[in-house]
Amino acid sequence: MAELPLDAEETGSDLPEGLAPPGNSDGSDGVSPPEPPPAQSMPAASHGAVLLRDRYLVDSGKPLPEFDAPTAKAYAVEDRRDLGNQLLALVCTPGFPIRLSAIRLLKDGDIPGVLPLVDWDSIMWPALGRKSLIIIYQRPLGGRVVDRLARKETKITEYDMPRRVIEPLSEALQKIESGDGPHRAIRPENIYFLDEDMEDIVLGPHMTAPPGHDQPTMLEPIDRAMAQPAGRGLGDSRDDIYALGVTVVLLLLGHNPVASMKDEDLLKARLEHGSYTAICGAARIPMQLIEPLRGMLADDPAERWDFAEIAKWLTGLKITPVKKKPMNKSEIFFKFRGTEHYSPRSLARHFARHPNDAVKAINGEEFETWVKRGLESKEKTDAIKGAIQTSKFHEDNHQGTDDFLICRVTAILDPDGPIRYKGLAFMHDGYGPVLATEWVRNNNPQPAAEALSHDVSGVWYGAQEKLKKEHIETQTTFTQLRGLLAIQDPGYGLERVLYEANPGMSCQSPFVAEDYVLIIEQLLPALDDAANSGGTSSQPIDNHVAAFIAARFNEDIHPHLKALASNKAETSIVGTLSLLAFLQWKLRTPALLGLSSWVGGLLGPAINAYHNRHTRQDLERDIPRLVRKGSLPELFNLIDDAEKRQEDSDGFAVCRAEWLEAEEEIRDIEGAGDERLTKAERSGQQAAAMFSISIALTVIAVLVLAEMM
Amino acid sequence: MANMSNTSGGVNWNVVLGGGVILAVFAAFSLPSLIVFAVGLLPTFVAYLIDSSDQKFGAFCVGGLNMCGVFPYVLKLWNENHTPAAAVDVITDVFTLFIMFTAAGFGWMIFLAIPPVIASFLSVMAQTRVKTLRTIQKEIMEEWGPEVASTVDDEPVGMPPGE
Lengths: 709, 163
Fold this sequence. Notes:
The structure holds two protein chains of two kinds. By secondary structure, chain A is α+β, with helices and mostly antiparallel strands. Chain A contains 29 helices and 13 strands.
């Protein structure tokens, strides 16, 4: 952004087809290496047109680079029902969490001053060879404001600025904020003339990337500018007002007054002299705009103008001028890695960027002296001493690590700045997108996961003098996310955190990653497609799918997840089937032949859970019939019939008892060989004795009777 | 304690005393019969002594047929001349003694021959029963699987051998 001429700001125009630039290209605190080019790199060639909702024909052969955003490329669109309708499509970069609620808000109705959103969907984008989110907008016929200004096709003077720019945009921002929060993508190249006559100015798209992600650091307030792009957080209207102020300066001057400064130098100047002075100090700002710009560019959010004050100024009412407060900086400098730091915020930023040197400096006497004398704050001195002592005391756990110590010290030095941990730098409301980008684009979620599990946000909150309302809200969110992270069952863990913290994140399961599953209704059809693509030996619900369902499906699925997490294969597969069946039933998803076949093929353990062989054979005979119907609920009812299970269980118990009874009798008969022989002999002897006595009695009786007769 | 008071060294004195009384009564009222029984039933007494089992099945076997050989001569004595002299004549007749002792010998042969036959018969019966039970078990396992043959602590057992 430091190079910002109004007509040459970085866009996606020089990127491969359909791709966004690496997100870490500015001077943020993020010290991780620049993001590698996305793996889906495709040659810039025409791949034909795709049809969105059977109406909008998006032609990948007709790019519109003048409407590109840093994380989305623009293409021409033909409305098949109204050929005169001038539209454009923004093809989002897969892997970025988008602002889904903002899309829905604008889809539900136009907001004056905002580029009208016509429709959206995730469809196959041939250039990427996968599905991507495509948003259809009304094409701003007047083009980019900065382009028209640069070509001198129009002019916005300081007299036009309030009515033509500030008033419509501030009204639009108010309406956006009341619907879905701040815009967070206000920059000169994202402001368009809606009409060919260049009368109506509108704000461009803001939902193709996380809040503030696409913003040059210059257009972000100091605290958020120090965070990495993905971690700048949602913020609030005050952040929009700051960006609007800088945008007004750039449009007014027609050039960037600090273009010659590097981002890092500009940020340092802003930290030490204030943003207004750093940006506008050398520029000729018209007298009537000095006060509003000073108010809009105030670094203290509490001092910064709000919409009410802008409205007052627009109506000509007198506004109390913003008092120039001295910046929080020391009279003496602290030299760190050859740079003299007067501002503790600047020092904190550099500590986080150079952790090895920072630890040595923090433990040195020179730093302690500087904090004591330079900052003249006994509280901060004590807090830093306490942090060092705590670190030494907890040598055997994470609190004793250098990263944790730096996190503590930087939070004490710069409590308004981002949370800094292991190279990450994110605002308290920007954790979700940081996790998403670190995981999906950099494939390294570990630092972000540790930041959550080690409660580094707690360190940051602890360093605040007073917790604001938004702090308490995000603190509660962090607590909830940490609770989810601690559970390792399917549907929880880091995957669940990813989707809970990023409502606009598509499901990253390998089964459906290329289908850009953004909403729960898209999941089952995507899994159905995955089934047809092969690879159905594992269960269709992996950790990502389970977490995505848990985060996006507004029904109680805990019993299903509990079954899914079971160590028993039969319980787990029944849990999978029950969850998918519940989804299909609730979402009224049509027949899922592929997914039914996939799940049906994995039901072996569930079938084998029945003891009776005839029942198993019956089930195996019936499953193909239901698979052909594509009905998961019917498949579930067949497999998990409670009455059938009870009958099977009871029958099994009876037959087991019968088997054991027979076994005992056999063992009794076959028991001890000698004993059995002895028993038989004894029986024989007894029989012989009875036989002998019977003969004797018979003979005696016969003889006695013979004598008597 | 009652048994202890009535036995000493394996000798049941109640039996000895009872037998003595019977013999005394028998000697007083029917001495000739006693003489014939005493001599004629000698194999039975011997069998009783050598049969170490509790039930004395051997003695019963020998005794039964021994009685068949002795009783006709006792009956003849009762009907014709019930005197000690006639009794002595009977017991001194070799042929008579042969009849009596041969009958006892048949009794001993029965004791030796019948038990093995009975044992074999019982064994065949047991094998038949085992086979029937194995068949029932096999049918149960075919319908319910090998798990049906397991108890809580056992692993499932295989199909019955030889099935």
